[in-house]
Amino acid sequence: MPINNKRTLAKRMETIQPFHVMSLLGKAKALEQQGRDIIHLEVGEPDFNTPQPIIDAGVEALKRGNIHYTPSLGLMSLRQTIADFYQTRYDLDVPASRVVITPGASGALLLIIGALIGSGDSVMLADPGYPCNQNFVRFVDGDIQAVAVDESTSYQLTAELIEQNWQQSTKIVMLASPANPTGTIVPKDEMKKIIQLVKDKQAYLIVDEIYQGLVYDMESSCALSASEGAAADHVIIINSFSKYFQMTGWRLGWCIVPEHLLEACDHLAQNLFLASPTTAQEAAMVAFLPETIEILEHRRQIFKQRRDYLYPQLSALGFKIPIKPQGAFYLYCDCSTFTDDSMTLAHELLETTGVAVTPGIDFGQNHPEHYVRFAYTRDIKYLQQAVQRLQNFLS
Amino acid sequence: MPINNKRTLAKRMETIQPFHVMSLLGKAKALEQQGRDIIHLEVGEPDFNTPQPIIDAGVEALKRGNIHYTPSLGLMSLRQTIADFYQTRYDLDVPASRVVITPGASGALLLIIGALIGSGDSVMLADPGYPCNQNFVRFVDGDIQAVAVDESTSYQLTAELIEQNWQQSTKIVMLASPANPTGTIVPKDEMKKIIQLVKDKQAYLIVDEIYQGLVYDMESSCALSASEGAAADHVIIINSFSKYFQMTGWRLGWCIVPEHLLEACDHLAQNLFLASPTTAQEAAMVAFLPETIEILEHRRQIFKQRRDYLYPQLSALGFKIPIKPQGAFYLYCDCSTFTDDSMTLAHELLETTGVAVTPGIDFGQNHPEHYVRFAYTRDIKYLQQAVQRLQNFLS
Lengths: 395, 395
Prior knowledge:
2 copies of one chain form a homodimer.
Chain A: H1 5-8, H2 21-33, E1 39-40, H3 52-64, H4 76-90, E2 99-102, H5 104-116, E3 122-127, H6 131-139, E4 143-148, H7 159-165, E5 170-176, H8 188-200, E6 204-208, E7 235-240, E8 253-256, H9 262-272, H10 278-284, H11 290-317, E9 330-334, H12 342-353, E10 355-356, E11 358-359, E12 371-375, H13 380-394
Parallel strand pairs in A: 1-10, 3-4, 3-5, 5-6, 6-7
Antiparallel strand pairs in A: 2-8, 7-8, 9-12, 11-12
């Protein structure tokens, strides 16, 4: 190859890591081709197909044939539908104009981080956390302040931790509730304190709520419920049709942004992706209808059953999970009973037992060698098989 | 508003301009609501619906219900289909592994510019040109070298112009062929010289071929046909299903990248958008079938008829179009006979005649006040009405 890649690539590429689970996935695929039966507990995607009402609406939209660009910020009818959902479900008065439709939550993060962060700005977030969040910041040459969190704060940032770690450069604090990989939630009281703190600092709080709705022991909530008056000008909500609504492949999400950021979002959307997929937007119009929600709530119960099976089983095997996850579909397990090298363990589990999990390294630098993530995105019968295989391997 | 936007937004937002045509569009919409009949010749989107075979394939894909994430670089079957298309249509041997599926050509530009450009790097491109191209560079804090081009080079960069304007920081040269807004093409001989030059400089050439297929007086072509051997390592092709294939709202494009950039593209795609819309990818599988191409070629003839009508008519009205556009669906017209302020003219045309066009300012800084762009993306009967109205207004 005549081109030296180190010299060729932009500097940011040195810091943007691939998902390490991809190498495991490659190995899993190779094993499957050899006839091995692999149980995929590494996948951060619901196993359910998109609910039928949404598919039907998509089919109708396609058949109408008019699949042209929508406005950059999305179909006003969908923005209004989402605003109505916040009113009905969370008793929140969100004007449709502040709802921005994006190609997945990824598109929302690209807009927000792109509009706010440049060289010299930093974003504070919890470690462990979803790896892409850090990489959006790196993409626009911002800095990361990864704050190590543990079970003492349910693996979440707190107002106290944020205050302790605040720097001159801190412009955004980012939370996820429920969080990936730990499934924990920021309590409303704490959220209030955090919002007040961020407002006092004249900074922004991004709350990733893409697992909103996927909670098992409480009512689902929205961080905006914890903000009052002018404080809402400092809060940005990220959401998605991928997880609770099981529309991953449609690539559709949204964010709720303060009024004063709308113009910047519009300018960036026009340039960076023009608009979100049209048919997905039309199909998503029925995502909040009672017949769809009924399907989704039934599936939420199934996720709950899986969690309630897998959590004690993995604990019994010797994985430590100090905080029972309240949401999402992950168990972030301390595997230090077995190893000081979770990456090697993940490879061994795959090779020996055919169970695929995600190594901690994909979620940050906070002792990742002691953690693996199980996603309960497979039917309970596969979870049972996986537990059986793990038992044989670990005993 | 408690937040000062200038201080709040990232510095790049000062340089990322909205499309000025948006304010015209807003006015057009308001006029339509008052009952005015507006002829939209400002829209860079085919008026045709997506061809029926593609819609049918989309419906079938939706009905199968399995709308999960695809691999980040796209469905291998679609990548192979596109590779086969290059083989069949252009006699080019492009391995499927080098075809990267993206959410629109926008997604492709985000990957390529993101992988290659950082602070201190610059991208050379022609002015006038498509405005987003510059804004992708600004988004990642790179520099623009906009080279003013005129009719003497068919509004395209040449090897000579590139050599004259080369700087230490130049890392990418970007062409569009056919180009927006001028509809001109880079001749194969010139393309060869440019590729050789860029190779000698150890830089990259991006060729935007999103209007490939929409040419009217010649065979469509691909810049890779003009590159040989190692030179291909320096050439990146951007393409899209939006224009020729009339799939704008599906948000699907592709790029062909050198082998050594694939890993960077994969890492960025995983992080920035995860994957392209699944149903669009499945539907696009039939975009190259003979029954689809037959529809598209028929529509190409209709675009040609529109151009062949509008080009002499606008010339007769006093608009100067020194180079007859060979492709795309735009006429970039010198309106200096009428005005030194094309923005005001565009507003007057809209208000007085109801004809909406795009002011030159949306395409760069090269005497934009002397230009407006007409898009022949409306049926010829509307073009005739528009000409009649313009005649009344201008005479």
